[in-house]
């Protein structure tokens, strides 16, 4: 079998994450779909795509508190509405991919996932294995999911990505974000900030003190949460790479093996 790559594209890239209403960034979605298509056509790898929710999820979750559990009828409706909104965004993303000849298969993770106190504990991936064997590109996305302790919690793309990568023995994870990688300070505020090309467990404690949370509404832990998940998956020998998906060409370069951004290893 070909090497498997799990590509996560953040909600801040494919939506206007600061918008109070769901708003897709169609320009970025279409460009990234083209880059994926060009790289995938090389035939060098199998691919799973995971995308974030951005303004299609974070605002309604923050407003209703369903990530902390379901306690009333209003939250039950919000639970269902949040899933519907994620389906809408996933439809936009997969439509763009299919238009570019990528056989994108939309997969609703919450139909197969079990959470416990906000953590993913069970996820049936047998159909996903079959789709990969059939030459398809499974496309997951962040969702509100059933939680055995609180009825609902958020199954983010940042949890889906490492879980799927480990279970399906991926070679590499690529995180397409809105930054060039991990820096010693916020490069938008500090001109002396330097890119950190390599993160290991040994330097994570120091690096974590430099990190700040997402500047937009984010109920899934921000960049610090992403790095923590990637360091955990690195223990399984899976390399991760954080690149700026807002910059044209970066997604294609990362998929084809170019070393840009920040790499996270064991």
Structure description:
The chain has 266 residues and is of the alpha/beta class. It has a single domain, classed as Acetylglutamate kinase-like (Carbamate kinase). Helices cover 37% and strands 23% of the residues. The protein has nine helices and 14 strands. The chain has helices spanning 11-14, 26-40, 58-64, 73-99, 126-133, 157-167, 201-208, 222-234, 250-255; strands at 3-9, 45-51, 104-106, 113-116, 119-123, 137-141, 143-147, 151-155, 172-177, 182-183, 195-196, 198-199, 239-244, 262-264. The strands form four sheets. An eight-stranded mixed β-sheet has the order 3-6-2-1-9-13-14-12, sandwiched between helices. A two-stranded antiparallel sheet has the order 4-5. A hairpin with a 3-residue loop joins strand 7 (143-147) and strand 8. Helix 2 (26-40) packs across helix 4 (73-99) and helix 6 (157-167) runs parallel beside helix 8 (222-234). The radius of gyration is 17 Å and the shape is globular. The two termini are 24 Å apart.
Shape: globular
Q: Could you give the distance between the termini?
A: 24 Å
Number of helices: 9
- Please describe the biggest sheet, giving its number of strands, its sense, and whether it closes into a barrel: 8 strands, mixed
């Amino acid at each position: 079998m070909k090497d498997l790559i799990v590509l996560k594209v953040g909600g801040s890239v494919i939506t206007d994450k600061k918008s109070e209403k769901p708003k897709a960034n169609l320009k970025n979605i279409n460009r990234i779909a083209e880059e994926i298509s060009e790289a995938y056509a090389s035939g060098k790898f199998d691919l799973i795509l995971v995308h974030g929710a951005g303004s299609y999820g974070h605002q309604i979750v923050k407003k209703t508190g369903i990530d902390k559990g379901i306690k009333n009828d209003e939250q039950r409706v919000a639970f269902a509405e949040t899933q519907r909104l994620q389906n809408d965004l996933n439809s936009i993303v997969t439509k763009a991919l299919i238009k570019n000849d990528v056989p994108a298969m939309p997969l609703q993770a919450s139909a197969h996932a079990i959470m416990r106190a906000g953590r993913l504990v069970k996820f049936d991936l047998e159909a996903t294995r079959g789709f990969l064997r059939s030459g398809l590109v499974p496309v997951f996305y962040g969702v509100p999911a059933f939680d055995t302790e609180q009825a609902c919690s958020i199954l983010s793309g940042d949890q889906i990505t490492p879980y799927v990568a480990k279970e399906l023995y991926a070679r590499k994870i690529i995180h397409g974000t809105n930054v060039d990688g991990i820096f010693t300070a916020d490069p938008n505020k500090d001109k002396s900030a330097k890119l950190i090309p390599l993160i290991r467990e040994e330097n994570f404690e120091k690096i974590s003190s430099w990190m700040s949370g997402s500047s937009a509404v984010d109920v899934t832990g921000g960049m610090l949460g992403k790095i923590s998940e990637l360091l955990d998956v690195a223990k399984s020998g899976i390399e991760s790479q954080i690149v700026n998906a807002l910059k044209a060409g970066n997604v294609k370069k990362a998929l084809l093996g170019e070393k840009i951004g920040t790499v996270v290893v064991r």
